[in-house]
Amino acid sequence: MGEWSGFISILRSICLLHAAHNYVGTFVLTHGPSMLPTLNVTGNLLLVERISTTTGKLKPGDVVILQSPESPRKIVCKRLIGMEGDEVTYVVDPKNSDRCETIVVPKGHVWVEGDHIYASKDSRNFGAVPYGLLKGRAVWTLLPRKDFGSLARKPMQ
Fold it and tell me: Considering only CA atoms, which of 107, 114, 70 is closest in space to residue 86?
């Protein structure tokens, strides 16, 4: 049995890491302009907790990580704007006009937008996102050091 004890310890550690990554939290590296000025174009390392998504404790204003509805292999970072049943008013094409539309977020969906309205591909382009695509809530910026700190919920009007 002694020769197996090392193997069993490694196996337990792997199982614990897997469970922690999938159900508790993880680290995510972001890049791109869609979340300026909250996040850098060149990248941020974020601490993401997964408990809020599984318990339904997300609220508008949270920064969330989600699977892209257009490219399923891609993970994107956006701000949660509306939950199911919420009425959301948004600028349809901010680069070319200030025309607004209002929608009611369908059951089982959320509305997400990037903080940089002119450089974000978000719910304004692909519509409301199924809640199941949400992977977690970003709670802390770890890198770069100058941005180290909590990612507080942004109050929504």
Answer: 107
What is the radius of gyration, based on Cα positions, of the chain? 18
59: exposed, middle or buried (Cβ count in 10 Å: 0-12, 13-18, 19+) = exposed
Buried b (16+ CB within 10 A) or exposed e, 102-128: eeebeeebbbbbbbbeeebbbbbeeeb
**What is this structure's pTM?**
0.89
Active-site residue, 78 included: yes
Does 34 participate in catalysis according to the annotation?
Answer: yes
Residues 6+ apart with CB under 8 A from 58: 52, 64, 80, 83, 110, 134, 137
- Catalytic residue among 34, 120, 123, 135, which? 34
pLDDT tens, 133-147?
999 999 999 999 999
